[in-house]
Specification:
Shape: globular
Number of strands: 17
CATH architecture of the largest domain: 3-Layer(aba) Sandwich
Strand content: 5-15%
Structural class: alpha/beta
CATH topology of the largest domain: Rossmann fold
Distance between the termini: 58 Å
């Protein structure tokens, strides 16, 4: 299977206290080498060890297992192989209580609990949520006196015993019973190895046995004991069964190690061999995957990214029949002018354009349909790069010489109409350009002089924009009949769209909750508002206290950030700094870049240490701290391709605007840019051994130094010959044409021009 991205994301499953030294060694001795191996090939490596940094909140909200299993799923989506390793000792480990129990199952459990006090305990900690489809009973967060670990430690075993005794008499499948009986580690192994196709090709187990291990209190960190302080026979049997199952599943992929009991701990002689085997096993699979990676041409990648963006936006499309009919009639009947759609922020222009493009492909078989969602990729926001890619795609579609496309912006403006004229009576050309207002300041592209005043006969061009600068430019070019306004979404279409989203998420809302969402939506009619309201209210349980939603988009985004910033959730520091760094990045950040920057931020580290339950093995923010926040932010983030990397950014520009207003006011903006500048400045310009340039550094460093007002450093960067040469010859390289007509264009020259333009615009006078 082809690698989905150039990121290798490996989940490390193990128990906690007994394998701490082994995991420390992997963090310091093995994972840096794997990171370096991947960097040499333009790839990234991430090791996900969630046993470090589990803060108290993760335990209090009873979400530890959903986070762990969610991270395994992310690893599997990101990296088909390898994505999972397991370290096992003699300890079976913590058995979490189920986070959710299906209502039908829970009701049968109730019938099997004869003791009234046990039933009362069960009903206190599990509440029915009728917003889930089908309904479930949800494990309640620990509040009040139960935030005290001693208090909770007295309740948890009793609650587990009640569930185990009740379910022992019930007819359940192995999968249904797993959540009641299995340890956290076994549940991870089931999801990361036992249910994975072809696990034997890339999942690895590393098993440690301790010789002379006593089975009493002196070895409580290394073996499971029951309430009387003796060996927990059930846990011991289960641990041996897991090992046996993995040995059968992963022939040749299980490695054994032996340590000796010293009287107070174990020897560490086995650790170097463990590190060697982990490095060897993962390196082999990673190198095999790298060898199979296909280099995708820059234009092909740009086209694919816009196609993917459109599919995401149109997945749940509802209504808009009138404006779609207007676009369809324009495409069918023809007009020598382009058609412009103007709509407010969040009115659904991108989804409309994506749906209209689908409609055009369906209605006009054989036509060439070209789509760009400006801002969805960095190149599409730049006027020169946008025209370059459009001219190349059109030339390729009509068999014209792609190599003759000029590279200079002014020449591209003259060339664009000529490439449009390649359309024929047999093959109409239909272009959709969404969000003209997202074009950058470079070359003054938002003045729209590059858009032809008159189109060739077989060309249709549909554009969209916000009211404002681009709308004014379009009004100067077009007759009034060619300007269409995207009206607010009617209430009936909003109800239908909300129902589609809820059904897909397996959720519903109570009548009063649904009324709150739809009444606020009716006042604005913006699909973006409805989407944000849905993402918030899908979390609501049927028993949740009533919440009043803010009536506008910035307000509902602000409510989200305020909720996430509560001490009981993530805290203000990690939320504000994470969002600020994403907003301050030029093109977004990779996940490991964000973790690196947060780990260099002393305010973030101090906040983590004050709240952490465990201390990590290095001065670095543990992955789980970000993972908890990521799962809450995931609906509001998107991935975009830039600088040969997959970067995180915001789903919609209004999210970024609220971050700017909320967290980047005053000097905070300069501080965040300065921190990013310092981070990228600390990175090597070239990867070790092979002279592969660090594209991310080349792209971000001048931008961050400019906005961080680091004038001396900026001057040094833009006069550093080695930096300039690397940027000119390695950034945004595009090869066009084939054979003797092949030509290489170094887009970094134009990016460097933009670096200088931006620097001169901001550099203090004198």
């Amino acid at each position: 299977m082809a690698q989905a991205t150039r990121t290798f994301r490996i989940f490390v499953s193990s128990t906690f206290s007994d394998l701490k030294e082994e995991r420390n060694a992997l963090q310091t001795e093995v994972f840096p080498k794997l990171r370096e191996l991947c960097q040499q090939h333009g790839c990234r490596f991430q090791a996900i060890d969630l046993r470090w940094g589990v803060r108290e909140e993760a335990a209090l909200d009873q979400q530890t297992m959903p986070i762990c299993l969610g991270e395994i799923e992310r690893c599997q989506k990101t990296t088909p192989r390898p994505n999972f390793i397991v370290l096992l000792g003699d300890r079976y480990g913590w058995r979490p209580l189920p986070t959710e129990i299906p209502a039908s199952e829970f009701q049968e459990i109730e019938r099997h609990v004869p003791d009234a006090s046990d039933k009362e305990l069960l009903m206190h900690w599990y509440r029915r949520d009728d917003n889930a489809l089908p309904p479930v009973y949800c494990f309640q967060p620990r509040t009040g006196e139960f935030t005290n670990s001693d208090k909770w430690d007295a309740v948890e075993p009793r609650l587990r015993s009640v569930l185990l005794e009740a379910t022992a008499e019930m007819t359940l499948t192995d999968d249904e019973r797993l959540k009641y009986t299995a340890s956290a580690t076994e549940q991870e192994i089931v999801h990361g190895a036992l249910r994975v196709p072809n696990a034997q090709e890339h999942v690895f187990g590393f098993f440690r046995t301790i010789k002379g291990l006593p089975q009493n209190e002196t070895a409580k960190d290394y073996v499971d004991l029951d309430s009387s302080g003796k060996l927990d026979e059930d846990a011991h049997t289960r641990q041996n069964a897991i090992k046996q199952t993995l040995r059968q599943l992963l022939p040749g992929n299980v490695h054994d190690y032996e340590a000796q009991w010293t009287g107070s701990g174990i020897t560490a002689d086995h650790i170097p061999k463990l590190c060697e085997e982990v490095l060897k096993s993962l390196s082999r699979i990673i190198e095999e995957e790298i060898a199979g990676l296909e280099e995708v041409g820059a234009l092909d990648k740009e086209i694919a990214d816009h196609e993917a963006f459109g599919k995401e936006r149109v997945q749940f499309f509802v209504g808009r029949a009138d404006i779609l009919r207007t676009i369809g009639d324009y495409v069918q009947e023809g007009d020598r002018h382009l058609l412009a759609v103007v709509g407010e922020p969040g009115s659904g222009k991108s989804a409309l354009m994506a749906r209209a493009a689908e409609q055009a492909r369906s209605d006009h078989a054989g036509a060439v349909v070209v789509v760009r969602f400006i801002g969805a990729t960095p190149g599409s926001s730049d006027g020169r790069a946008l025209l370059d890619s459009l001219c190349r795609q059109i030339s390729r579609a009509y068999g014209a010489d792609e190599a003759t496309v000029p590279t200079d912006y002014k020449e591209l403006v003259d060339e664009f109409p000529k490439r449009l004229a390649l359309a024929t009576d047999q093959r109409m050309l239909i272009l959709f350009l969404d969000a003209l207002d997202q074009l950058s300041d470079a070359e003054h592209a938002r003045n729209l002089i590059w858009l032809p005043g008159e189109l060739p006969e077989q060309v249709r061009l549909i554009v969209s924009t916000l009211p404002g600068e681009c709308e004014a430019a379009l009004k100067r070019k077009l007759p009034a009949s060619n300007l269409a306004k995207l009206e607010p979404m009617p209430g009936n279409e909003g109800r239908e769209l909300l129902d589609l989203w809820l059904t897909d998420a397996g959720r519903t809302l109570q009548p009063h909750q649904r009324g709150e969402v739809l009444s606020k939506f009716a006042a604005c009619g913006l699909p973006l508002y409805l989407k944000l309201a849905f993402e918030d209210t899908r979390r609501w349980k049927s028993y949740s206290p009533m919440v009043s939603l803010s009536p506008d988009t910035p307000g509902i985004i602000g409510q989200l950030f305020a909720r996430l910033s509560l001490h009981m959730n993530h805290g203000a520091i990690i939320v504000s700094h994470s969002l600020s760094y994403l907003a301050a990045a030029k093109n977004g950040l990779t996940e490991d870049e964000l973790l690196d920057v947060l780990s260099r931020d002393q305010d973030v580290l101090d906040d983590f240490k004050a709240r952490a339950k465990h201390t990590p093995p290095e001065e670095r923010l543990p992955v789980i701290v970000w993972s908890r926040l990521y799962f809450d932010l995931e609906p509001y983030l998107t991935e975009r391709s830039a600088d040969r990397a997959s970067l995180m950014g915001f789903y919609h520009r209004q999210l970024r605007e609220v971050v700017d207003e909320t967290f980047l006011a005053g000097d905070e903006k300069r501080k965040r840019h300065a921190s990013l500048a310092a981070y990228f400045a600390s990175r090597d310009l070239f990867e070790k051994e092979e002279k592969t340039p660090n594209i991310r550094k080349l792209s971000e460093l001048p931008y961050q130094q400019t906005h961080g007002q680091m004038w001396d450093e900026l001057y040094g960067t833009l006069t550093d010959f080695e930096f300039l040469e690397a940027k000119c010859t390695h950034v945004a390289v595009v090869t066009s044409g084939r054979g003797e007509n092949a030509r290489t264009v170094y887009g970094g020259v134009y990016e460097l021009q933009e670096d200088y333009r931006l620097a001169l615009e901001h550099f203090p006078a004198g």
